[in-house]
Known about the structure:
By secondary structure, this protein is mostly helical. It is built from four helices and no strands.
Amino acid sequence: MSYTQFERGKFIRxxxxxxxxxxxxxxxxxxxxxxxxxxxxEEALEVAGNTHNTELAKNPIYLQAVExxxxxxxxxxxxxx
Length: 81
């Protein structure tokens, strides 16, 4: 596994945690929802941030985290390109 894949997985996990905290604070998620998502992430999210689990792949927080990674990579490419 390349460093970039590891970096992607770390970014997605951290962003998901951040997004969960925001949703929890806004009352959009309960503590139980957060726990269930954390369990799903532990069992279905690969080190590189990929998943083959349909439930996780359709989760809005996962999708937002993946989109945030894509945008971060675009910004980084423009700075170094």
